[in-house]
Structures
1.
Amino acid sequence: MVRLGDADGARFTTRRLVTAAGLAAQACAAAIAPYPAARIPKRHLGKGNYFALSGLKAPFRRLIYPPPIPGALGTHYRRDLGGVARFGPDLQWVEEEEYRVDPARAESFYAAVRRFWPGLPDGALTPDYSGIRPKIHGPGEPQPDFMIDDPAAHGVEGLICLFGIESPGLTASLALGEEIATRLRA
Ligand SMILES: Cc1cc2nc3c(=O)[nH]c(=O)nc-3n(C[C@H](O)[C@H](O)[C@H](O)COP(=O)(O)OP(=O)(O)OC[C@H]3O[C@@H](n4cnc5c(N)ncnc54)[C@H](O)[C@@H]3O)c2cc1C
């Protein structure tokens, strides 16, 4: 039985339930009565900031992905459909969800971008936007794989809970879907 938290107190029954709640994954699992609380991994917030190139044409047509940094994929380059060049995301560990981009982080961006584009002029980067990765590892710890918690692990029939679906979770989404379908059929 799944009870929804809406005004009508709607409820329904299902034999299968998959939770994929991103930053709310831990809260979601904690709200599932028989789910063993001890299995819920600690949530860490890995904010990723972006800076945009202003006043200049995008320097490259293709994506540039330098080698990963510890704990994340690292600052890469992309040109969006409107032709704007963007750099990011970096990795900033934060304690709460807040999305302001600190202009002071520009300094580390100049250093990161000049590793693959030495010609980046001073003053060309402006704060753009940010996102927060739902990490299940903290600073200095090795990045684990996605956590797909199935009945064999937690004992609740028909339930799969996903944790730590951070980058490259979008790229991996079809593979994740296939894996989950396979486990639900097992
Ligand atoms: C800065 C940054 C850069 C990234 N770059 C890349 C990249 O280049 N390539 C890549 O592959 N991936 C990237 N990712 C990762 C990618 O965005 C995620 O892996 C992907 O969005 C995960 O999808 P999801 O559906 O699991 O979670 P989310 O997209 O977070 O969606 C979770 C959903 O659950 C909903 N929800 C939460 N609680 C409840 C509840 N109680 N009831 C119902 N719904 C609920 C939320 O509203 C939300 O809609 C990046 C992430 C960040 C933060």
2.
Amino acid sequence: MKILPKSIEELIDGISSLPGIGPKSASRIAFFLLRAPKELSDNLSTAITQARDGVKLCKECYHYSDEEICPICSSDERDKSVIMLVEDALDLLAIEKTGDFEGVYFVLGGILSPMNGIGPDEIRLKELLDRLKKSKSKSKEIELIIGLNPNMEGESTALYIQKEIDANKDLRGKVKITKLARGLSSGADIDYLDEYTIRKAFEGRSAL
Ligand SMILES: [Zn+2]
């Protein structure tokens, strides 16, 4: 016997496919939406559609943006010779929230994970090298801060990037690579860390 109408079951299925939401929370959210004023679900579905269809990726850092170049990359107050490499927009937001970082970012869009079929072509490795070359022509020295999660995949991605930079005649010896250090325990997830820990890790960065 079906206890719930199909449309509600589909709503619960949809919500439970979101990260961090189990079937119980999904049911709770679904029933909340059904009880709440219709405006709330209308606004929510419009916001989802607009974000999906309307948002671009910044041409320089690949962060989400309304414009071709995001506000961070187009700001005169940011140091374009210091580039923080992050896995995704969540990590960028976590680091940006500390308010301490005055450089710019590059969103890699993933990390190397041969087990999950993610190789160099699946992440923005080529785009990163292009970006470094472009930055290099404008500034004497470029610092690339590896802001990837300190786990095995993050470490091997960092090493791969270093090898690629060393193998590139335009970049070899011209890009200083540093990594976030102190306070970041191995296996940590950057977007779950508090601002103090990220700030310490940023201050204590060391050469790779
Ligand atoms: Zn940008």
